[in-house]
Design goal:
Heterohexamer of two alpha and four beta subunits. Keywords: Chaperone, Cytoplasm. Its main location: cytoplasm. This is Prefoldin subunit alpha. By secondary structure, the chain is α+β, with helices and mostly antiparallel strands. It has a single domain, classed as Orthogonal Bundle (Helix Hairpins). Helices cover 70% and strands 17% of the residues. It contains two helices and four strands. The chain has a two-stranded antiparallel sheet with strand order 1-2. It has a two-stranded antiparallel ribbon with strand order 3-4. The chain is rod-shaped, with a radius of gyration of 27 Å. The chain starts with 5 loop residues before the first helix and ends with a helix.
Length: 149
């Protein structure tokens, strides 16, 4: 086998590092997408529960594991964040439908990001194989050079 080119090894290592960083960033994005999906799903369940509760009393988390019992004055409407810190008032059923659509969009986005992560992992694995082969080639060349002296 020909002696491994140090520039090739350096380039492969650089690509491997870049892929690792990209995978880390996409994994963080995937985690944020999943958190948003869970929050939207919790909002759907809460809005539905408020609609089904005849007295309108719910538990409001105030932090530190503490809750207040509060009475919802208007169970027929909810404020929904539509992005850029803008919230609009919607009928409860419309708010549930909006959140369900958001969950669907987040699930699709999560699948797309997960696919990108999988693709990058495959490419990183291939580069790792090539890098391993280059290192083996360099070791063999070094051993052959030592044995020939």
């Amino acid at each position: 086998m020909d002696q491994a080119d140090p520039r090739e090894i350096q380039t492969l290592q650089m690509y491997l590092n870049e892929y690792g960083q990209q995978i880390e960033i996409l994994t963080q994005q995937l985690s944020m997408i999943e958190q948003q999906r869970l929050e939207a799903a919790a909002g759907i369940e809460t809005l539905k529960a408020v609609q089904e509760n005849p007295d309108g009393v719910v538990l409001l988390p105030v932090g530190g594991g503490a809750f207040l019992r509060v009475k919802v004055l208007d169970t027929g409407h909810a404020l929904v964040n539509i992005g850029a810190d803008v919230s609009v008032e919607r009928a409860a059923a419309s708010a549930v439908a909006y959140l369900e659509d958001r969950v669907t969009e987040l699930e699709a986005l999560g699948k797309k990001v997960a696919g990108s992560v999988e693709q990058l992992q495959g490419q990183a694995t291939e580069i790792s194989r090539r890098l391993e082969a280059a290192y083996r080639g360099a070791r063999q060349a070094a051993q052959a050079g030592q044995g020939g002296s």
